[in-house]
From TrEMBL, chain A:
Gene label: purQ
InterPro entries: Class_I_gatase-like, PRibForGlyAmidine_synth_PurQ
GO cellular component, one term: cytoplasm
Summary of subunit composition and partner proteins: Part of the FGAM synthase complex composed of 1 PurL, 1 PurQ and 2 PurS subunits.
Chief subcellular location: cytoplasm
Entry protein name: Phosphoribosylformylglycinamidine synthase subunit PurQ
From TrEMBL, chain B:
UniProt catalytic activity: N(2)-formyl-N(1)-(5-phospho-beta-D-ribosyl)glycinamide + L-glutamine + ATP + H2O = 2-formamido-N(1)-(5-O-phospho-beta-D-ribosyl)acetamidine + L-glutamate + ADP + phosphate + H(+)
Superkingdom, natural source: Bacteria
Residues holding Mg(2+) 1: E93, N531
Segments crossing the lipid bilayer: none
Subunit field text: Monomer. Part of the FGAM synthase complex composed of 1 PurL, 1 PurQ and 2 PurS subunits.
Annotated source species: Pleomorphomonas diazotrophica
Enzyme class, spelled out: ligase
Pathway the protein contributes to: Purine metabolism; IMP biosynthesis via de novo pathway; 5-amino-1-(5-phospho-D-ribosyl)imidazole from N(2)-formyl-N(1)-(5-phospho-D-ribosyl)glycinamide: step 1/2
Active site (catalytic residues): H49, H95
Name by which UniProt lists this protein: Phosphoribosylformylglycinamidine synthase subunit PurL
Name of encoding gene: purL
Cross-referenced InterPro entries: PRibForGlyAmidine_synth_PurL, PurL_linker, PurM-like_C_dom, PurM-like_C_sf, PurM-like_N, PurM-like_N_sf
Annotated EC: 6.3.5.3
Record-listed ATP binding positions: Y52, K91, D493, G530
Domain PurM-like C-terminal: start-end pairs: 202-356, 569-703
Amino acid sequence: MRSAVVLFPGSNRDHDMVKALHSVTGIKPTVVWHQDATLPDVDLIVLPGGFSYGDYLRCGAIAARSPAMLDVARKAKAGVRVLGVCNGFQILTEAGLLPGALMRNAHLRFVCKEVKLEVTNNDTDFTRAYAKGQVIRCPVAHHDGNYFADPETLARLEGDGRVAFRYAEGTNPNGSINDIAGILNEAGNVLGMMPHPENLIEALHGGFDGRGLFESVATSLAA
Amino acid sequence: MFQNDIDITPDLISRHGLKPDEYDRILRLIGRKPTLTELGIFSAMWNEHCSYKSSKKWLKTLPTKGEKVVIGPGENAGVIDIGDGDVAIFKMESHNHPSYIEPYQGATTGVGGILRDVFTMGARPIAAMNSLSFGEPDHPKTRHLVAGVVAGVGGYGNSFGVPTIGGEVRFHARYNGNCLVNAFALGIAKRDGIFLSEAKGVGLPVVYLGAKTGRDGVGGATMASAEFDDTIEEKRPTVQVGDPFTEKRLLEACLELMKTGAVVAIQDMGAAGLTCSAVEMGAKGNLGIRLDLDRVPQREEDMTPYEMMLSESQERMLMVLEPSKEKEAEAVFRKWELDFAVCGVTTDDLRFRIIWQGKEVANLPIKELGDEAPEYDRPWVEPKTAAPLADDAIPAVNDVGAALIRLMGAPDQASRAWVYEQYDCLVQGNSAQIPGGDAGVVRVEGTNKALAMSADVTPRYCDADPFEGGKQAVAESWRNVTAVGGDPIALTDNLNFGNPEKPEAMGQFVRALQGIAEACRALNFPIVSGNVSLYNETNGVGILPSPTIVGVGLLPDVTKMATIAFKADGDEVLLVGGHGSHLGQSVYLRDLHGREEGTPPPVDLTLEKKNGDFVRGLIASGRVTTCHDLSDGGLGVALAEMAMAGRRGVRVELGGLAPHVAVFAEDQARYLIALKPGDVSAILADAAKSGVSVERIGTVGGDAVDFGPAGKASVTDLKAAYDSWFPAFMGGKA
C-alpha cells in the first residue's frame, strides 16, 4: 500500500504516523509539503496530528486552505482513501470533507490519556480488521476534540452507519455528542478521528490495538 | 525621540538593579560614563540571573567531569555520550518569577526557553519534564497559579511536539509568595553534530533568525534577580509571551539549516535576548561583534536601541553564517515562514558595537562584559538545622491501613493525573514510561536503548538540614533512574533559593551545594548543566531551599525496563535495604500529626550505591521487572502505589516491628521488588554475597494492602483517596 502524509507547519505527529504506516504496511510513506499543489498517486492520504498553524484562528482552519488540501479534496472525490487523525480530523471538517465541528473539550483542558473505543461499524475500509462492537484501547491527546453536529446531520451519520468509532465504557474524554470519536464521509473513503491509533502499535506502547486500522486499509486495497 | 546620552543618575542606576560599586566598576572598565543603551546592556549582563555573581564561587566546586561527559556546564546545555555515536543534550531552567506574575505565559516561555537551549546545540528534543512548587492549597493564589502554570507547560510542549514524561508537583506555605517552575528538556544528536555558540572567523555575517523583536520582556532578567514585594502586579509587562508554533518551525528550520553546513556558531536568545547572545558568541570566540539594529526584524514601531537590546521576545536565534551558504540558509527560513536577516558582522576589535539609525549607540569591550562581571563571596552562616526527634515524641496510630489511605489522599501524595493528563506524553511514539512511575523513559529512535530521567528534591529535608537535603535530592534522582533499570550517567540541577544577600539564605545555598557535590562524587554522577534562581523571597519570607535535580541514565535494552505495578498474584515482594526507623521530617508526621519536625533521614551514600547497583543488576539481567524506590511515605506509600498501578493487593508481614515506624519511616537507599516465588532464593543468596540487605516481606494478591493485625487498606479505598484529591481541589471542593 502506497501512502502519503501531508506535512503542515505545526504538524507534530507526522513522524509517528510515518512510523506506523511503515511498520504496518512495510512501505515508507511519502511526506508531502503543504505547499505542493499535487499529491503523488497513492492509495491512502493521511493528515497527521499536531497544531497546524499553532491552532490559531480555529484548529485546522488555516491548514484546510493550503494548496495541498485542494488536491486532497479532488482525490477524495475520486475515491482515494483519506485518514485525518486529531488535527487531521479538524482539518477535514474545516475543509468540508467531513460534516460537523470539533469544539474545545467540555472541561476546557488539554487531555492526554488512554480511552476505550467501540468499533461501531466494522464494515468500512478503515475498520475491517476489527469485530463489530469490539472495544479497543487507544490514546487521545487534544484540546479541541469535542465533536458536534446539528441534529439532522447527526441523524444521518448514525442512520448511515458513518460513526466508525465511539468512546466506550464511560471514557468520553471531551464531551463529544453521542460519544463520537470518528466518522466517515458519505462515500466511506474519508475517515476522521480524534484518537491516535498510531501511538498504540508496538510492545513499547504497551499494546497493538491501533494496528488494526492500518491493516484494514491495506486489506481493503488488496480485496 | 530617543535620548541615548542622558544623565546617568543614581536613581537610574538603581532601577537597573546595579549597586553603586557595580556602577563604579563600569566606569573603571570603560573609562567614561555609559550611554543609556550601554547601561541597559550592563544591567542585562551583570544581573544575578545572567552573571551568577553570587553563586559562581560555589558552582565551581561541583563535580562536572566523568567518562561519559562530552560537554559540561558553560554551554547552552550539557552533553553526555550514550553510545553508538549518539549524545543526549539536556538542561533544566527556572521560570519562577515570571510564572508567579503571569502563570500561563511564565510557564510557556520557561518551557520554550529550555527547548531552545537544547535544539540550538543541534539536538531534537525528545523529552521534557518539570518540577513545580506551589503555596499551600488553601492560599487564595494557589489554584490560579496551578491552573495557569500547568496549562502553560502543556500549551507550549504539546504544540511544539515534545512528550512531557514526568515531573513533580508540591505544595507548601513557604511557596505562597514565590512559586517554582523548573523546566527540563532533553534532546538527541550525533556526537559529531553538536553546535556551539563560539564565533569563528572575522568579517562573517551575523544572522538573526526566528520571530520578530517586540517590547515584551524588556528587563525580564533584572526582574528575576530581585525580591518581590506588594508591587508585584506592576511587573507584568516584564513577562514574555510564548508562541510554540513559531518555536516548532524554528526547530525544524534550525535542524534543516544545520545539515547544510551554513552554521558556524549559533546561540538562542534567552534572558536579555540580543545582548546576551551576541556577547556570548563574540566573547567565546575572541571576536568583536557589530550589530546594525535597523536590520533587526521588528514587530513594533519606533523601538529604541535600548528596548531592542533588552527585549526578551521569544523564539529567536543568532547565528554566525558561512557566507557561501547564505542563499541556501535563507531559503530554509523562508520555507518555514520565519525571519532571516543579516544584521551584523564579526570583527577583530573585541568590541561590542551597536549601530542604530546610522549612529553608534554602544561601544563596549565584549570580553569584559562577561568576564569582568562582579563576583561575590557572599557572607554566609551555618544554617539552622532542625533538632532530632526523641523516639517517645512520635505518636503511633491504631490502624496503619486507615493512616495510609489518609496519606494517599493528602495534597503531596495524591495522584498528579489532573496535572499530567494536560501534557502530551506520547507524541513522537517513543515513550516507554509515562508519568506515574519512578522515572520517565523514552526510547532512542531506531534503537533498542532508552533514556530514563527523574526530577527530584525534598525541600522540607533541605530546610531541616541543607547538607543532608542536598545529598538526598541527588540520591533520590539516582535511585529513581536505577529503579526503572537505568544506568545513571549525569544530572542537571536547578538551584532555587532565597535572597543570597542574607547570610542565613546564603548558608542554605552553600551547604546544599556541598551536599550535592558529595553525593555526585560518591555516586559518580556528575553535573553537566544547570541554573541558579536566587531571590525567591516575598516580603522577607524565603522559599524552602529547593535544589531540583534531574538525573539522566541509559537503559541499554528497553525491553528489560522495570515498572512499579504489581504484575501477578503470588509474586513475592522483597524489601531491599531493610526496614527503616526514621520518622523525622516524614510525611507521616506532617500529614497525620501536623508536625514538620526532626532531622531528615541521613543518606549513607556507600549504602545507596551498593543497594542501587544490586537492584540495577537484577533488572539488567532480566530477573526483575517490578521495582519501586522508597521515598516520601516510606514502605506504605510505595506498596500502595504498586498495588494501585497493578490493580491488585499485597499481604505484608511486619513481624514484631512497630507498625507505624516500619510502614512510614523514610530511611533512604531502599527499594521494593516483586518476582516469581521460584526466583526468590537465588536472589537472596546473591544479595548475601553482595552484602546487600534483602528480605522477603510479603506476597502479591488480594484486594488490599494488608498489614495483618496492624490494619489494611483496600486498593479501591486507596485509589478513591488518591484519585480524588487533585480534581476536588481544583474544582474548589478540597
